[in-house]
Design goal:
The chain is an all-alpha fold. The protein has one domain: ABC transporter involved in vitamin B12 uptake, BtuC (Orthogonal Bundle). It is about 80% helix and about 0% strand. It is built from 14 helices and two strands. It has helices at about 5-30, 35-50, 55-90, 100-120, 125-145, 155-180, 185-190, 200-220, 220-225, 230-235, 240-260, 270-280, 285-310, 315-340, and strands at about 145-150, 150. A two-stranded antiparallel sheet has the order 1-2. A hairpin with a 2-residue loop joins strand 1 (about 145-150) and strand 2 (about 150). Helix 4 packs antiparallel against helix 5.
Length: about 350
């Protein structure tokens, strides 16, 4: 990477990280009981030193901070997965929600919730595992439906993703109807939200994010090469099918981590990589880390809006991201049509 580009990347990463830190403080400070930013910073300091005391510290450390940190991690997972899908499929419209991966993870998590309610299975372990299995199965179905002579047709990919997403959503609805005692819980969870946030969930999602990001961060050059097409990538020494498999598993792991704790939250994986790409270009050495940080910013702010816009009523955060992401998706379609 040229020195000028490296310096620009460091500046952008530092700026986005600062925005994320500011968003976290704002997310913790604002709510039904507003707190001063200094009180938030002081409470976090007390928590790090192991000396929390007072109602403000308890509000910050036990309620708001786990939720805000979890929102950041979920946004990072969705943004990283969206970046990988767009690179692998060479399609700017690829997104965990649109490709049906989120719906697959949602179905798996729903089955785990229903089984856990009836069989006493620990949802803490079962939901992430089931969500991962559903995510991998759904992307495998979409790829199998659109593969033609070893290649993926991009238009067919999107159509298949939408079809699989609706089908899995219908199956999820059937499961909810079949298990009426958990219907309300599952319906509210499917709308997307972080009300059940805890430090235990923060640890689980952080670990899954770290594992899912390990391979993509090590092979950012190969992600750039994949943008040239499968044939050209193979000529340059990449085992294309193996590389796709590893990246798809990594992306699906991160989607599963997000869905298992927050339900279905759409469009974060679609919007965030595009915003980063407009600033930094397509080089994944720069694009991937900035997209991950920006995804955290987007979802922290979306969750903050969900909590304060109609306070004391709390909106599902999935509604907020859909309101923002729907027009963005239409804009992308118009841009693609003009480009064609």
């Amino acid at each position: 990477m040229p020195p000028l580009a490296r310096s620009r990347t460091l500046v952008v990463v530092a700026a986005v990280a600062a925005v994320l830190a500011t968003a976290v403080v704002a997310g913790v400070a604002l709510g039904a009981v507003p707190l001063a930013p200094a009180d938030v910073v002081r409470a976090i300091g007390h928590g790090l030193l192991g000396r929390p005391a007072g109602i403000a510290d308890a509000l910050v450390l036990d309620l708001r901070l786990p939720r805000v940190v979890l929102a950041a991690l979920v946004g990072m997972c969705l943004a990283a997965a969206g970046t990988l899908y767009q690179a692998l499929f060479r399609n700017p419209l690829a997104d965990p929600y649109i490709l049906g991966v989120s719906s697959g993870a949602g179905l798996g998590a729903t089955l785990a919730l229903v089984a856990g309610a009836g069989l006493g299975v620990s949802a803490f372990v079962a939901v992430p595992v089931a969500a991962f299995a559903g995510a991998v199965a759904s992307i495998a179905i979409v790829v199998a439906m659109t593969a033609r002579r070893g290649r993926l047709d991009m238009l067919s990919l999107l159509l298949a993703g939408v079809a699989v997403s609706y089908t899995l959503a219908a199956v999820t609805s059937f499961v909810m109807v079949f298990s009426r005692q958990t219907m309300q819980q599952v319906v509210f969870w499917m709308m997307g939200g972080l009300q059940t946030a805890s430090w235990a969930y923060v640890v689980v999602v952080a670990v899954m994010l770290a594992v899912g990001l390990a391979a993509p961060l090590l092979y950012t050059r190969d992600l750039d090469v994949m943008l040239l097409g499968d044939e050209r990538a193979a000529q340059l020494g990449i085992d294309v099918e193996r590389f796709k498999l590893v990246m798809l598993v990594a992306a699906s792991l991160m989607v599963a981590a997000a869905v298992s704790v927050s339900g279905l939250i759409g469009f974060v994986g679609l919007m965030t990589p595009h915003m980063a790409r407009l600033v930094l270009g397509p080089d994944h050495r720069r694009l991937l880390p900035v997209s991950v940080l920006a995804g955290g910013v987007v979802l922290v702010l979306a969750d903050l809006a969900a909590r304060v816009v109609l306070a004391p009523v709390e909106l599902p955060v999935g509604i907020v991201t859909a309101v923002l992401g729907g027009p963005f998706f239409v804009w992308l379609l118009l841009q693609a049509e003009r480009g064609a």
